[in-house]
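User: My instructor asked us to take a sequence, write out its structure as tokens, and then describe one feature of it. I'm not sure where to start. Here is the sequence I was given:
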Amino acid sequence: MQDQTASRTALATAFLRAAHQILDNPPLLLSDPGALLLLGPRAAGTINADLSRYQSQAGKALRTHVVLRSRFAEDRLQESVARGVTRYILVGAGFDTFAWRQPSWARGLQIVEVDHPATQAAKRERIAKAGLAESENLLFAPVDFEREDLDGLLACCGVNRTEPVFFSWLGVTVYLEEGAIDATLRAIAAFAPGTRVVLTFRQPGGEHSAPLAERASELGEPFVTLFTPEEMGAKLLRSGFRNIDFLTPERARRLYFTPPRNDLPVPKRTSILCAAR
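Assistant: Let's start with the prediction itself. The structure tokens for your sequence are:
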């Protein structure tokens, strides 16, 4: 991503969440009407004009991943809130809309969206155009993950590491050098016991991996790091996390695809996890 340019893959992700709202069958894995509002009045037409891509096997698999990772993260967030967590930090928030569709159990949260300044500026411009009010419990925190320290940024935002915090870090690690990933994991693991993070990573290979990697590179945001589940698990343990809970395909089927769906496929690979301090 160029320094002055909003993330194009983050915008593409928002279109995938919007496509889920109009192409897939209820009950939706993720109810996210805010995605369509944020993308503007032409979004539905743009999606319907490109159905061959959105409804292809690869398109459906990618859409499953995008909505499933947010659903899994928000389910784990609800558990953490029930245990007393009061801060939700989205690292690499992109065009996420949780702040505009908060359920009643989230009203006591402080929500901190951490992302590149250019992406945040583009998002706030879209928020204004859509006529959406910025929630009182939402704070925007701009950061360049390759150049700045997450721990220092959060301290400036008044986030106290002596309290447990819930982090989501979705769709980001694949674009970062390993050193930046390690630094961010150590910063999260420095928070109090009870802190949890839901993150995604990309494995080597995979049925649709090469075309997706080529597309990301064309958008100027090439894939940089790939990990097996074993490698990612070992990295988390070294960073200071104690419990690592992978969303395996079998578990995803049981939690989110029972009864079976005829629109979106069950994921074939493990790429989403929740790690706890």
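For the description part of your assignment, you could build on this observation: The chain has a mean pLDDT of 93. Try explaining in your own words what that tells you about the chain.
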